[in-house]
Design a protein that fits this description.
With 160 residues, this protein is an alpha+beta fold. It folds into two domains: 68 residues, Alpha-Beta Plaits, CATH 3.30.70; 63 residues, no CATH class. It has six helices and five strands; from the N terminus they run E-H-E-E-H-H-E-E-H-H-H.
Amino acid sequence: MSLVIDLDSAFAESDFDNLENLMPFVSAEVASWRVDRARGQIVIELPASAERPSIEKKVRKLVAKVKPLRISPQPEYLVDCRNRAVPCQSDLFDLLVSRRDVIQHAPGIFSLHGKFQRMFSRLDGHLRALAESLHAEEAVYPVTIPLETLRKSKFFSHYP
């Protein structure tokens, strides 16, 4: 049984990418799915036993979350630092690695330590406070994803 959902014509490439990355979390009942960028649709294959209305509702909710934001085309600068000298001319990441403030555990997997981790936590706290003042809603995504979900979403072919 197929379920086809039309997408907003204003979807950008990054919106399609976000949608593809989040689709595996919709339901374990989804047999397969694909995002047809040319037609602006999500095509979902469901087994006959699937709760179609429930899955459709979840997909529509997901689509609403990744819909493009309507942002003013002109940026507003609160503080203009474009003409200031940059204090660090060397590669900052290499410096953090040499000081062991950043440790690579596997390709693309890093941990933060020391002063850098403390600075990151403070910055995160400030951003969280700003978001709360704007009544933003926090979302937490799993750190690990089941292997079968990664296979189903074709993660390894998208991100070899």
